[in-house]
Write a structure and sequence with these properties.
Three copies of one chain form a homotrimer. Chain A is mostly helical. Helix content of chain A is 73%, strand content 0%.
Chain lengths: 322, 322, 322
């Protein structure tokens, strides 16, 4: 802790911990989320055909975490709706992003520097949401690490985890892809956050809460900015993941070569079946999906991925729409 | 209020407000709902293959609103089942509509005059259900208009809103269509009712509850009867909807012509993609869907619409089945 | 009761009623359930591609009943997760069944004698789960037979009833089949158990609880063993079901021949549509589904059936995988 004191990090982290998310950070979260929705294939068409479905979809993007954790804890699903100020704010942003004359709001927010700032601020809200979930679960299930992780994860990455059902609202159904089968970066980083905050809460991690908040927030913001600036979607945990996977889930049998062949066959099959799905997808979106072309190479990650990929600055997409 | 007193409307509305829904109006609701289920494509086949799935589907048609509002308020989903009398009544009607010897019950109830009366009575129950939902939400969330509207809507139009999952029980899955993407008339009128009763409850609407109940009930019954008699499925709100849509959701940009073109393209795409879906649908139902032929023109509205369209008197359909 | 006393059945049933499910019987339930998951088409591929989705799927197989009954009673869905010991035990078994070096655990457990014992022990847990559900529902809804049956059924056969959504976790979506449309044997026997225990609880069945537990357990275990040894999947209730169906759901109209024709047409249509679905299925699984070939004849029962069919001793399947 001495080092922390020297660097004034203690004060900084205290200041951060006392930061209020409302209204600026929440606004950034709503803007980035609703822009991500708008960039989903077909979303713009839905916004013309049925503003209500579009609004409901937007609310699921903004409050998905609250809805999912409410379902998991058997609390009223409508509770997020009862916070009128937040819903009103999110609805206003929804309206401006989708229906603003001359598309001013979307085009401005899609400019790289602004988008970078907004995305950074959205990442900050993640810390608060994960911590909120973990704390809430801790107050009900004192000793259950798993429940705390699950609720923290759900609260922080709810929009992604329920994306199959969010898509259903817009008439899209892609059962072959979900966040558990192929985790996107935000879902992964949220899971790691949920684990860390749970360990801090149960004193397995010898860190003070506001220090962890600072470290986690800085990490997510820096990493997000790096990904947006370099346009890379590579996970910073790829090496660790690969090591864990090889150690735990590949089996160390004397028949290693045989197993590898089986595995290769499995993966080949997987690829084949998903690529077929992608082809189907792209042919389905043939008419409607002009807005964001899905290359077959990217196709693998599916639309879930698209949500976040679209967050990386693609200011060109704005030109297409008006 | 003087005018009301002159017309004796005050007494009439008081009388109406004290009307008990059980058993006659509830019965009418069950009969019309289960007949609507029976007229869904493929439902008759399901009733032969799996009476249990058919019964469960019927219960979702009859108690869908109660189930949906229970989920939203985190109350036990099984609660509607605990009202043994209602479930028994609905089950008896389900049995008679689907399995009555010589199909007597369905054929009688499908006669235009009787169906007209039953549908009118079903519309009356809508008022009670919407009001019940709004009141229930008001007791929990005093100040949240949105929650009150949502629960009132869910209670009154639950069967329609959960129709994707009701269809799943019968092995049918049509993700490209739902009540939010393309609202049917009953869903719309219920939403309007939920808004009105919420405004009355929160005193934004300077009307007494029983007066509003009278007006709303008369409107829904008259309108339903008109639609059944003329066979028209045109919404009485088409003009207002169109005006709101043009004002709020089309954008008033100087690039109006361009925007219009984009919009036209969007709608064209939308139509193309849905018509493809319809073709797929009709080919899928090729064998099973003989009972109610879906014309490509109607196809757009999909099966959700069919539910209500089928409620318009088509006594001829009876002849086909026996 | 005299006969019972003579046969010492009273003491035996008392002993059985005091038996603890944890840990041995629970372990058998987890092993058999997770092996059933592993034998689903495509499950092995999922276990390689996404261990997390595989783990979540396994937990739904093991705790599906608890999850479903929690949803129905508006209790926290995460509650089963809060029982750390059970989750840890199930997770360990999941790991060993899917990732054990040289596939030792799966191959051993798949040997007929061991599988027979494990399946028998799993059937014993069914009694406890159904009884637990009925008792829990009875404490909340004293007079509602239907709720008690529903919760008992959900708790005992939850994994099957939510299988559509469990499959969705693994990226599989088969809307044309569910446990209500075509009940599998375990779902049927659980429903019968739920009815019996509900009648015992409400004193309509003049039997003591531990006697009923003994009879029901013996019946399920013997029947399961018989089915595994003879490899038959014929239901012992086929005759009763057929009689009930003919009495209640076929209609005794004077137009019997006509009705029969209609019914035949219906069933033909049904078959046609499902066989089309099966073809689609098998072509979809063309690559991924090599592990368990689905014959078009069996195809009708779909994957739900596969879950249980796979439980019948097919020790040969082990040879295929390593």
């Amino acid at each position: 802790m001495d080092l922390l004191e020297v660097l004034h990090l203690d004060e900084l982290s205290q200041g951060l911990a006392n930061l209020s998310m409302f209204p600026y950070f929440d606004m950034a979260h709503y803007i980035v989320s609703i822009m991500a929705l708008r960039e989903q294939p077909g979303a713009l068409e839905v916004s013309r055909v049925s503003p209500l479905a579009c609004w409901f979809s937007s609310m699921l993007f903004c409050f998905g975490g609250a809805v999912l954790s409410a379902i998991m804890l058997a609390e009223p699903v409508v509770a997020p709706l009862s916070n009128s100020t937040s819903v009103l704010l999110a609805s206003m942003i929804w309206y401006l992003v989708f229906y603003c004359p001359m598309d001013l709001v979307y085009c401005c927010a899609a400019l790289l520097p602004l988008r970078l700032v907004l995305s950074g601020m959205k990442e900050v809200t993640r810390t608060w949401k994960v911590l909120g979930g973990v704390t809430q679960a801790h107050s009900k299930y004192k000793d259950s690490l798993l429940v705390m992780i699950a609720i923290g994860w759900a609260k922080g990455a709810g929009g992604g985890l329920i994306s199959n059902f969010e898509q259903l609202v817009r008439g899209v159904w892609k059962p072959e892809t979900n966040e558990l089968l192929k985790m996107s970066y935000p879902t992964k980083i949220t899971l790691i956050g949920a684990v860390l905050f749970t360990m801090q809460q149960t004193h397995y991690l010898p860190l003070q809460k506001h220090h962890l908040m600072l470290f986690y927030t800085v990490f997510t913001v820096v990493n997000k900015s790096r990904m947006m600036l370099t346009g890379s979607s590579s996970s910073p945990f790829a090496a660790i993941e690969s090591a864990i996977y090889k150690t735990l889930f590949s089996g160390h049998s004397p028949y290693a070569t045989l197993t590898d062949e089986v595995k290769k066959a499995c993966i080949d099959n997987g690829t084949t079946s998903t690529s077929t799905a992608t082809t189907k997808e792209s042919s389905e979106n043939g008419g409607a999906g002009k807005h964001v072309p899905v290359s077959p190479v990217k196709g693998r990650r599916g639309s879930l991925k698209a949500k976040e990929e679209s967050e990386s600055a693609e200011t060109t997409s704005c030109k297409k729409t008006d």
